[in-house]
Amino acid sequence: MITIYGIKNCDTMQKAFKWLAANNYNFEFHNYKESGISPDTLTTWLQHIPVDNLINTKSATYRALPETDRKNALTNTPDAIRVMLNNTSVIKRPLIDLGKGTYMLGWDEKVIAQISETISRDN
């Protein structure tokens, strides 16, 4: 099962939802604003995705953080997890868990189309 993580009102998320639905992929949506995110999930992601990719350093939320939090979040895993737990809007979106340790970060229709052959459309 594909799980897509993010927030509902994001334009990029809406593009991902529309593409997945139009191409008949079943997926679950995990809304950070409603459900939060677990430290274990963040730890797993950081094993597959570099922290400077996972944290959206261009976001207004990131830029509003104290300078020490911004610096430490990019160089220290426990600090990165703390910042993401407390400020889920800094996590780049969408983050798509395609299963079996395969993740796609951000939305690129060409990339998802290339890997779509390996993605299960089933539950």
Report on this model:
The chain has 123 residues and is an alpha+beta fold. It has a domain at 1-37 and 93-123: Glutaredoxin (3-Layer(aba) Sandwich), CATH 3.40.30. Helix content is 48%, strand content 15%. A four-stranded mixed sheet has the order 2-1-3-4. Helix 3 (39-48) packs across helix 7 (77-86) and helix 6 packs across helix 7 (77-86). The longest helix has 12 residues, at 11-22. The mean pLDDT is 90.
Spell out the blueprint of helices and strands:
Layout (H helix, E strand, L loop, with lengths): L1 E5 L4 H12 L4 E5 H4 L3 H10 L2 H4 L5 H5 L2 H7 L3 H10 L8 E5 L2 E4 L3 H7 L8
Parallel strand pairs: 1-2
Antiparallel strand pairs: 1-3, 3-4
Largest sheet entry: 4 strands, mixed
What is the CATH topology assignment of the domain at 1-37 and 93-123? Answer: Glutaredoxin
Low-confidence stretches: none
CATH architecture of the domain at 1-37 and 93-123: 3-Layer(aba) Sandwich
Computed Rg: 14 Å
What is the β-strand count?
Answer: 4
